[in-house]
Amino acid sequence: MSCFRTLLKNSRSKSKEAPAAPEAAANSAAHPGFRLWSSLAQGKHDVLSYPLCKVLLFDDSNYPAWLVLVPQVPNVTEVIDLSEEDQAQLWREVAAACRALRAIFRPTKLNIGAIGNYVSQLHLHVTARDVGDPSWPGPCYGAVPAAPHAPFARQALIQRLRKALLEHAPRPCISQAISAPSPEGRANSLPPPPSAQRRAGSSGRQ
């Protein structure tokens, strides 16, 4: 059984899933109450946080890069559970991730997937694929055991991804703070996504 399938098997229960331990979750979230599930955090590393999504690197060197975008909204399992504003922001951020991967790797194909049959916390996979990769031309999800990067190579890849994700950030992000993990591994504060900003403004909160 692949490492990816092992990861997914650990979270059969959807409603009883515990949040990630503090060191595995973002220090701040776009929506109060958001916590990254420990099963989703496993085998992944912080890259940065856009206004809506936490962007993680899935640690698998079988592919040029495999990103996971997690909307920082509690209690959502489907894209349609998000507000219309957050759905639009999600796709802007997915497109930004695609542009970043294409700029770095020039892959044969970009795969986007929202599956969640085992880990139901809403998340989207964005994977750079090449002809000849271990699961080409089939889907990459659980196809072969994950091959973690060496620590130095992983850190270098994260730095390249972070730079490209900032360069290709969606237009609404340009005037907003985008957070990257601090040296201690925790994310800096970031503004809420559009729907949360609108709600805060209507209630008079700053």
Automatic annotation (TrEMBL):
It comes from the Eukaryota. Residues 176-206 are annotated as: Disordered. Pfam families: HIT (PF01230). GO terms for molecular function: adenylylsulfatase activity. PROSITE patterns: HIT_2. InterPro entries: HIT-like, HIT-like_sf. Residues 67-136 form the HIT domain. SUPFAM superfamilies: HIT-like. This is HIT domain-containing protein.
